[in-house]
Amino acid sequence: MNQTILSITASVLFLFSITSIPAYATESGPERKRKSAVQRHLDICMSCHWVGALDAPRFGSKKEWAPRIAKGIETLYEHAIHGFNSMPPKGTCEVCSEEDVKELVDYIVKKSQ
Ligand code: HEC
């Protein structure tokens, strides 16, 4: 009788210890995903490209983006990073890296063709 209770207690303890290991492991090492430039800075681009301020090609407008896209993506990167007429360098996003700006251009172009 005593032995049965002992072995049940032992298996419960054993089960508890193995099931609690994975829970501990995920709690202690959560990978915080880096937010993409699109998530962090798209609102800056949208302040002009949503409404078409200063004649900016509007986000999602195939018609307005087609002639831009026709210039080639490298030209669009170049103009977005260094500025082009009323398009300010990096679209005024001072904290954006060149890679961030390219990611934003890719996103806007993808959604506008
Ligand atoms: C202050 C308003 C403003 C903001 C903010 C802005 N843009 Fe622009 N953008 C413009 C205007 C205006 C043009 C059109 C320039 C022209 O064709 O004369 C333009 C054009 C562009 C073009 C096309 C360039 C070409 O060669 O035709 C790209 C790509 C672009 N913007 C990307 C961005 C990105 C990415 C952001 C955010 C980081 C951004 N813009 C933020 C005003 C803005």
Summarize the structure in words:
There is one protein chain. With 113 residues, the protein is mostly helical. The chain has five helices and no strands. It is elongated. It has helices at 2-28, 37-49, 62-69, 73-82, 98-110. The protein has a domain at 37-110: Orthogonal Bundle (Cytochrome Bc1 Complex, Chain D, domain 2). Residues 41, 44-45, 47-49, 53-57, 68, 71, 75-76, 79-80, 84-88, 90-93, 96, 101, 104-105, 108 line the site of heme C.
Q: What key phrases describe this protein's structure?
A:
113 residues, mainly alpha, Cytochrome Bc1 Complex, Chain D, domain 2, 5 helices, 63% helix, elongated, binds heme C
Please outline what is shown here.
The protein is mostly helical and 113 residues long. It has helices spanning 2-28, 37-49, 62-69, 73-82, 98-110.
